[in-house]
Amino acid sequence: MLFSAAFVVKVGVFQSALLSSSSEHPVEAVAVYESLVGGRYEDVAVFTQLENSHLYDVEAVLTLLEFVLLGLLVAMAGFGWYLRHDLPLALIWGGCVSLALLFVFAIVPFDVFFDAFHGVFFPQGNWQFPESSVMLSYYPYSYFSSNAFWIGFVDVVLSIVTMSAGYFFGSQRRKVKHMS
């Protein structure tokens, strides 16, 4: 699921499309977003000190996501090597577990998840803005719910691909064993 999130978050075309359809300031919002993802965010004049502070924290969370994903890739490579004889079964189970986790997240109302996520990653509370906030005109609630939808969609696709790969590799292994 983290890979799906990183894919949706990092692919600029995705974000440009989502911001174009939801933001009151899509061009500016895309530029700010690209600076966040690129790790080069600087204060934006139209944002308040609180809004700029939050975006620095967002930049830090995105950087943390990259390190976590790198660690997971290394761990998965090691786990894959360790389970190389049972890799098809591990791929099938991995896809199933990912879909099960996605189902759990899908039954939680988005606003509950959104609040919990922000409470964990931004506990100082600098993510709560008044309705008149410029930040909310750049990045409205609909933008985040659209991101969640696409993260879920990409996760379903990756899970199906993972399970299919496990089935394919397992069937190839069974053919080889049957022939010998």
Structure description:
The structure is a single chain. The protein is mainly α and 180 residues long. The protein has one domain. The chain is 79% helix and 0% strand. The chain is built from 8 helices and no strands. It has helices spanning 2-10, 12-22, 26-37, 49-82, 87-107, 110-121, 134-138, 141-179. It is elongated. The two termini are 39 Å apart.
Number of helical segments? 8
Q: What's the number of domains?
A: 1
Shape: elongated
Global Rg: 20 Å
Instruction: Compute the number of strand runs.
Output: 0
Poorly predicted runs: none
Given the helix and strand composition, which structural class is it?
Answer: mainly alpha
Beta-strand share of residues: under 5%
Q: Could you give the topology of this structure?
A:
Layout: H1 2-10, H2 12-22, H3 26-37, H4 49-82, H5 87-107, H6 110-121, H7 134-138, H8 141-179
How would you concisely characterize the structure shown here?
This protein is 79% helix and 0% strand. It has helices at 2-10, 12-22, 26-37, 49-82, 87-107, 110-121, 134-138, 141-179.
What descriptors fit this protein?
mainly alpha
